[in-house]
């Protein structure tokens, strides 16, 4: 049996385990020092994935079996000198001479077929195909629990947020009447998800207030909460700066509060000695005209780069400021960058950590960027 028949039969009979191609014949024209071909299960069907490796990067190409056969034979006959093919029937080592002749060394099979399934569904906190009333009312899924295609990104965002919340509560004791404030709740997908998570999954009777500046949004959310019988979930009109609450607040959530509204929410949370802060900033403009670092002028002279750097500097400074107030801070990816560049979530947990180191880092960081008259500082100092 020649090599063409070996490859074709192993593919058609699902006996192909994987192939490894090394030592390019023409290194000057072929950038890939190694290629690995392996079968995968995808939504579109079974395919062969080619992983092409350079010194620093890996590229992937998925082909159906017919196209994969042609690609493998091309790699054998024209591209590589040393090739190993592993099938259920045998291991094959292929040695290619300078003149192009192929020597096939057949050995007993040493590998087992274990096709990776890339079609496996992720297990979420709120699972797909399991009816969830609040998601139905908010138009994310139908009554059978099937997520609408146009809402699938929102469904994943809700679950990602709940995963972060769940992880944030690992070392915190949760009692009934756990109090949460959601600043700028909007249509409140995540606010409803929070209430559902605590009351239905964790079996804790939390209280949540959602705050927004749109009357129609507040009315819709209150009506929805009543329909769901989420009795301790309330929505009210108001902004962050003017909102006050007399009792203990355990968690503050602020998602996509624009520009300095994020800083105002963080300061309020600090002043209230809130245990958990989850904030996704939006539209950071404060430092665009303030950052100044002569060494980085070749970057900062470009408006697009300056905008992105000033956004990252803003969130970094916010994190450091929270650390100076005794919080353990992490900056996490909230949503994949393919969906939105506003994907950083600031998570701060009150642990009363040593503040001296944080204060030093905070001051040094301001000097690096020549920052003065910072809103989060001024607003913090203005509140008693």
Could you explain how this protein is built, in words?
The protein is an alpha/beta fold. Helix content is 35%, strand content 26%. The protein contains eleven helices and 15 strands. The strands form two sheets. Strands 1, 2, 3, 4, 5, 6, 7 and 8 form an eight-stranded mixed β-sheet that branches. Strands 11-10-9-12-13-15-14 form a seven-stranded mixed β-sheet, sandwiched between helices. The termini are far apart.
List the helices and strands and how they pair.
Elements: H1 3-12, E1 16-24, E2 34-42, E3 45-53, E4 58-63, H2 65-79, E5 80-87, E6 91-96, E7 102-107, E8 116-117, H3 133-137, H4 152-168, E9 179-183, H5 189-201, E10 207-212, H6 215-228, E11 233-237, E12 251-258, H7 260-271, E13 276-282, H8 297-300, H9 303-323, E14 327-333, E15 344-350, H10 356-369, H11 375-382
Parallel strand pairs: 2-8, 9-10, 9-12, 10-11, 12-13
Antiparallel strand pairs: 1-2, 1-5, 2-3, 3-4, 5-6, 6-7, 13-15, 14-15
Helix pairs in contact: 1-2, 4-5, 7-11, 9-10
- Which regions contain 5 or more consecutive residues with pLDDT less than 50? 336-340
Which class of the largest domain in CATH terms? Alpha Beta
**Largest sheet features:** 8 strands, mixed
Global outline: extended
Query: Quick one: how many beta strands?
Result: 15
- SSE-based structural type: alpha/beta
Distance between the ends: 86 Å
SS element count, helices: 11
Number of spatially distinct domains: 2
* Percentage of β-strand residues: 25-35%
Q: Tell me the radius of gyration.
A: 28 Å
């Amino acid at each position: 049996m020649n090599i063409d028949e070996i490859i074709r039969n192993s593919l058609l009979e699902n006996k192909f385990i994987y192939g490894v191609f090394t030592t390019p014949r023409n290194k000057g024209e072929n950038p890939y020092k190694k290629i690995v071909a392996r079968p995968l299960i995808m939504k579109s069907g079974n395919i062969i994935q080619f992983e092409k490796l350079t010194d620093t990067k890996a590229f992937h190409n998925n082909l159906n079996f017919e196209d994969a056969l042609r690609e493998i034979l091309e790699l054998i006959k024209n591209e590589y000198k040393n090739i190993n093919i592993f099938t259920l029937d045998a291991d094959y080592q292929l040695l290619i001479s300078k003149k192009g002749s192929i020597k096939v060394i057949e050995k007993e099979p040493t590998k087992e077929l274990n096709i990776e399934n890339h079609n496996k569904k992720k297990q979420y906190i709120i699972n797909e195909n399991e009816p969830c009333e609040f998601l139905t009312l908010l138009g994310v899924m139908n009554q059978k629990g099937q997520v609408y295609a146009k809402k699938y990104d929102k469904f994943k965002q809700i679950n990602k947020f709940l995963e972060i919340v769940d992880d944030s509560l690992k070392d915190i004791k949760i009692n009934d009447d756990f109090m949460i404030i959601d600043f700028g709740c909007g249509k409140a997908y995540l606010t409803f998800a929070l209430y559902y998570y605590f009351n239905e999954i964790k079996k804790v009777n939390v209280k949540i207030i959602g705050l927004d500046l749109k009357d129609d949004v507040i009315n819709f959310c209150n009506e929805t909460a009543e329909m769901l019988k989420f009795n301790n979930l309330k929505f009210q009109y108001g902004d962050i700066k003017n909102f006050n609450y007399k009792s203990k607040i355990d968690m503050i959530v602020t998602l996509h509060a624009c520009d300095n509204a994020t800083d105002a929410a963080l300061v309020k949370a600090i002043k209230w000695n809130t245990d958990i802060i989850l904030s996704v900033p939006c539209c950071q403009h404060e430092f665009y005209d303030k950052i100044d670092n002569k060494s980085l002028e070749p970057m900062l002279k470009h408006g697009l780069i300056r905008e992105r750097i000033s956004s990252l500097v803003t969130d970094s400074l916010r994190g450091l400021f929270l650390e100076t107030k005794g919080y353990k801070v992490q900056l996490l990816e909230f949503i994949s960058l393919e969906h939105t560049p506003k994907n950083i979530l600031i998570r701060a947990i009150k642990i009363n950590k040593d503040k001296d180191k944080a204060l030093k880092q905070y001051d040094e960081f301001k000097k690096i960027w020549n920052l003065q008259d910072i809103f989060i500082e001024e607003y913090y100092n203005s509140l008693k």
